[in-house]
Amino acid sequence: MNLEIRWALxxxxxxxxxxxxxxxxxxxxxxxxxxxxxxxxxxTVGFSIIDRNSKEVSFTELGQVLLSTANTLQAQLNESMxxxxxxxxxxxxxxxxxxxxxxxxxxxxxxxxxxxIDEQAIKFExxxxxxxxxxKLLKEGKIDFLVSYASKHEMNQGKFDALSSVRVxxxxxxxxxxxxxxxxxxxxxxxxxxxYSKNAYLRNLVDHVIQTNNLDCHILYETDNAENLKQLVLQxxxxxxxxxxxIMDELAENKLIELSTSQYVVNQSIYIYxxxxxxxxxxxxxxxxxxxxxxx
Length: 296
Description:
Blueprint: H1 6-17, H2 20-26, H3 31-45, H4 61-88, E1 94-100, H5 101-111, E2 123-129, H6 131-139, E3 145-150, H7 152-156, E4 163-178, E5 191-196, H8 201-212, E6 217-223, H9 226-234, E7 240-243, H10 248-252, E8 256-258, E9 266-275, H11 281-295
Parallel strand pairs: 1-2, 1-3, 5-6
Antiparallel strand pairs: 3-9, 4-7, 4-8, 4-9
Helix pairs in contact: 1-2, 1-4, 2-3
């Protein structure tokens, strides 16, 4: 079965106009030619795409499936063209990183020193961001790299199929509270929870642990910024799940107490992602270096 790309635009235009004559005008062909193309498409796929018994143009059930596919193709094409535009218009030696909030000040700041480029020859642009927003910017070509967490389950789901990735670290998300003289917390009893905002990646992980274990808590504070969360925990006002990699010093100095047993711990890998469509030589060079570091 051979389908031309124009059929997708024909269906999208027909859906928008709800009229064969108006759709034909938008596609710059005659009404009869548009009708013939539609009939040819139906013959190719082996089913009716529109309901010809209806007074107005309406899609059949299978036609709706094909229309959905057409809309997906258009979205992917627009996304690719935007990425191409962004890459073509990046003329200076700038590397643009989006890093999830909890990794900006700890893990990534240390990891960046391994980039083998003279500081005078390159400019780094780094923004703290949520995983979802970072994925969107990466696919749009507005950043070169995303540094984020991901579990094996998510990688297997194909959520990152359009991206190349290299695992650069791993950590545990653990429940902790501050060591103070007058406050201790027990996850088997009611406790105040300091947590991430609803649109934050780590919020979903924490919510899953709480719901799975039927933990009794109330949310005292929400924030996107993991550093703010850590500072609030250190004040002794509640319990928070924090990446172990970001609180190593506080744990070693006994400023934070770990409440974790295996069922309360979430294992997470840290990845650097780039779009598979981004073949910018500088971006590719740095990405290959990250891959070499992994193998050492």
